[in-house]
């Protein structure tokens, strides 16, 4: 036997559809709660509607029908806060529940307030998420329980409210989280305590491997470099030829002076012979003899320079210089530095510490060098000496020159390798460590 259920009135379906549209159009949880508390009245007249949000402590009042914003200090809302805790314990079923004083048996203080402010019955509609977690509760204050047909029709609207509630709650937690005053205060206290933590003051600076025992090889005379006889980083022994200077000018000068010496000797000999017959020629002997000695001295000086045109290494080591092609044919003056002869058995770190990064360093301060070629094998050392005055380097950066030792001999400590040195100073507070450079910049800019 088939039972014909009565169809809902078309006007009811239109009203339910309008309520769903308003719920989907809500942009905040407050707007959704306001729609739930007020827009249902044409469909189901009630004395009052209350919308609660479920939290860990219980039910929190969000909206009261007819009020834009509930006043928390009113006697009704103070009592309602106690009643919401009792109501949260009473509602255990996921379906809408009809409560009266007879079937709910509230405590005495709740019953007195119920008799004063509430009608005979409460229709409680819980809203649950997909995982069964209760999101909130809609409480309608009615004189009589709604008809069963309305229970069925409101089921779809209730699921729409729950879906919108879950979506708006998740969006609020993600995009509108605000720390509490206690969290802000605790964060400030922790940050202040961290600023007082002592840390090691450090600085980073470019560095390279040099030799502690390096001799400067300079040009012995003015001239032009004719040939470089060694290659960069080539091991040399004492007496190994390093480079030669062009001898063309000196040899030409020596030949001319040789001719001048011969002429002076001939003039001196002729004057000596004339002196026997002519007493006046004796006065010229002294002058001609001095001129001949001058020409011999000039010739000896030029011959000495010719012997110095080939420069040899004064000790064993490694020839340190740039490309040989940069020197061939280049005019040099006396004392101009050409290359170094360095001892590879005594490596050291040469550090260029920029003035902006300078920290208080004393001889003996620790240094760690991270070579570009071997970043996983740092070299340890200590400061040996620091320059008194900062000077501008080839890159235009004004920096102090520091020399540091290398504690352990390593195969990676090859002359000429570059890297980054980490310098360790004394211990300072973390706040000073972080604000040192900004404070120095502000003082330099403001003059304070």
Record field, number of beta strands: 20
What is the CATH class designation of the largest domain?
Answer: Alpha Beta
Percent in helix: 25-40%
Describe the oligomeric state of these chains in a short phrase: single chain
CATH architecture of the largest domain: 2-Layer Sandwich
What's the shape? rod-shaped
Order of helices and strands: HHEEHEHHEEHHEEEEEHHEEEEEEEEEEH
List the uncertain runs.
Answer: none
Q: Can you summarize the main beta sheet?
A: 6 strands, antiparallel, barrel
- From the N-terminal CA to the C-terminal CA, the straight-line distance is 99 Å
Summarize the structure.
This protein is α+β, with helices and mostly antiparallel strands and 448 residues long.
Describe the structure.
A six-stranded antiparallel β-barrel has the order 6-15-19-17-16-20. The protein has a five-stranded antiparallel β-sheet with strand order 2-1-5-4-3. The two termini are 99 Å apart. The chain has four domains: 166 residues, 2-Layer Sandwich (Beta-Lactamase), CATH 3.30.450.80; 101 residues, Efflux pump adaptor protein, beta barrel domain (Elongation Factor Tu (Ef-tu), domain 3); 62 residues, RNA polymerase II/Efflux pump adaptor protein, barrel-sandwich hybrid domain (OB fold (Dihydrolipoamide Acetyltransferase, E2P)); 62 residues. The chain is rod-shaped, with a radius of gyration of 50 Å. It is built from ten helices and 20 strands.
